[in-house]
Design brief:
Layout (H helix, E strand, L loop, with lengths): L1 H19 L3 E15 L6 E6 L6 E11 L2 E10 L16 E8 L2 E9 L1 H9 L18 E4 L5 E6 L1 E9 L6 E8 L12 E10 L2 E11 L8 E12 L4 E11 L4 E13 L2 E12 L8 E11 L4 E12 L25 E11 L1
Antiparallel strand pairs: 1-2, 1-3, 1-19, 3-4, 4-5, 5-6, 6-9, 7-8, 9-10, 10-11, 11-12, 12-13, 13-14, 14-15, 15-16, 16-17, 17-18, 18-19
Pfam family, one: Porin_4
Main location: membrane
Keywords: Cell outer membrane, Ion transport, Membrane, Porin, Signal, Transmembrane, Transmembrane beta strand, Transport
């Protein structure tokens, strides 16, 4: 009898421990493909690319019920390269790392998080900012990168360090997100500071987004500010979904780009066909750094968690531009093209989520 009671107590302890952890989820993405990139200044290259459609990740997220409708929530997400096993984003949890509280008021989180601008663009792009047709090849998706000379470069950072975010509850299809990223520069609180806002409406076949992001240059270079405004949406026609976006990218130092995205996605033969066209116009005085991108892709589900994909993208650069076709991967050995030269990319691969 005593042994039975002891066994029940031990089983109860394990059951309690398991129950206490049911609110913690382990998840991830493993994505690898073979890609060919042409047009680079160093010549064409074949790559075994890591994360072509979606960046590879291993994550942990969970909640704790604090009572009265209040919950504690956290998320830790690591990025890695499946081709080499190395770490991405330069940190253990470089993709996301935050903790916060949520309830009927919405959610407030603190840590490294996505810029609402990136989330908005990702929801409009028929390629989901992945594959070789990613809109981020031309369009801004977050904080801009300055080079050592203080010149606004081509790269953007979709995640923001030291960020405080607020996400509203859904009210009749409307949601809002706000982010404030502290620059953490002693004596200059505005340096490297980011703030961003977005609003989304989704109801039936219609979805619309409006997003704005502003980032100050680091204190190590001349004062500058990069500002992005995005408006767009999708409309599901049943047989196909239309995608449309317009974006302005400006800096105090004179950069001024206008981007149009027109896309379509449609179910075909059990999978999804995606196509898009992006036109970027350089509106700066004497500007000649515009470009056009054409992209076509297809994804096919093998199960609820595994799919195969293929995609092709081509960029035609104006005389002052050297944009390169890329995707969600860590990037291969391809280099940017010479100014005014075209860039193309093709990929085929497989993605598994868990």
């Amino acid at each position: 009898m005593k042994k039975s009671l002891l066994a029940l107590a031990v089983l109860g302890a394990f059951a309690g421990a398991a129950n206490a952890q049911t609110n913690v989820t382990v998840y991830g993405v493993i994505d690898a493909g073979i890609s060919r990139e042409t047009g680079g200044a160093n010549g064409s290259v074949w790559n075994l690319a890591s994360g072509v459609q979606s960046g590879n990740r291993l994550g942990f997220k969970g909640t704790e019920d604090l009572g009265g409708g209040l919950k504690a929530n956290f998320q830790l997400e690591n990025g890695f390269n499946v081709d080499t096993g190395t770490q991405r984003q330069g940190a253990l949890f470089g993709r996301q790392a935050f903790v916060g509280l949520s309830g009927n008021f919405g959610a407030v989180n603190l840590g490294r998080q996505y810029d609402p601008l990136f989330i908005a663009l990702d929801s409009i792009d028929p390629f989901g900012t992945g594959l070789t047709g990613a809109s981020t090849n031309l369009m801004a998706a977050g904080s801009k990168i300055w080079d050592a000379a203080g010149v606004v470069g081509n790269g953007e950072v979709p995640r923001v360090n030291n960020a405080i975010t607020y996400s509203s509850p859904n009210v009749s299809g409307f949601t809002a997100n706000a982010l404030y990223g502290l620059g953490e520069t002693a004596g200059n609180n505005s340096a490297n500071r980011t703030y961003a806002l977005s609003g989304t409406y989704a109801n039936g076949p219609v979805a619309a987004v409006l997003a704005y992001s502003s980032t100050n240059a680091p204190a190590t270079i001349a004062a500058d500010k990069f500002k992005v405004l995005l408006v767009g949406g999708t409309y599901d026609l049943g047989v196909a979904k239309a995608h449309l976006a317009y974006e302005t990218e400006k800096s105090d130092s004179g950069a001024d780009f206008r981007d149009w995205l027109l896309g379509v996605s449609a179910p075909v033969a059990g999978g999804t066909v995606m196509a898009s066209f992006i036109k970027q116009t350089d509106k700066a005085a004497g500007g000649n750094a515009g470009a056009k991108q054409y992209a076509l892709g297809y994804t096919y589900p093998l199960s609820k968690r595994t799919n195969v994909y293929t995609s092709y993208g081509h960029i035609t650069n104006d005389a002052g531009a050297n944009n390169v076709v890329s995707d969600a991967s860590s990037g291969g050995a391809n280099s940017a093209p010479n100014f005014g030269q075209s860039s193309s990319g093709f990929a085929v691969g497989v993605r598994h989520t868990f």
